[in-house]
Amino acid sequence: TLQWVAGAVGVMLFIASMAIVVPPGQAGIVILFGKVNLEALPSGLHFINPFATVEKMEVRTRNYTMSNIADEGQKRGDDSIAVITSDGLTVKLDATIFYSLQQAKVAQIFRDIGPDVEDKILRSEIRASLRDAAASLLATELYTSKRQSFVDQVTKTLKASFEARGINMEQMLLRNVLLPDQITKAINDKIAADQEAQKMAFVLQKEKQEAERKRIEASGIRD
Prior knowledge:
Shape: elongated
Helix content: 40-55%
Low-confidence stretches: none
Structural class: alpha+beta
Strand content: 25-35%
Mean pLDDT: 85
């Protein structure tokens, strides 16, 4: 009887050594004797070769932020992207992207790139796409009229680049555009001048209306 119990315990331990649970939102990469199985395990319970190991990678949507504000992004300190516009000015950009790893290609990503996709792929691609797109715009255009078209162009570039690597590019947010101080002052001065001009035009219109009212009133009294 003792031998039967010991045998049953041995079988249970052997089966337990084959069981692996992949948590929700992750994929399991099976590695056997240094070789990566390119068919990743979805979330759930699986039984694998007891000699294999399993690395887990996130496949849920994640965000990656590069910002000049300390502790706001994944890197400490100023991690904004400096770009040079067509008028030769250096502008700093804060950006956030939302992305996810494709389940079908996550094992290949692990084999070819490793688990650190953000440092090895995302950062360099984001910087390159922002710099390339900004090179054809004036600093003031990037800050005002061409901002959305700039975001659309960068998003399109990143989607194509990420797709080739098995990464879904879901959205990009241009969170802040930091212009040189002299340009910011010039823009603010222009806005202030426009507002003052509108205010003056309103005052003149009111005075004109009041003068017209008085003329009509005087004409009525005279009549």
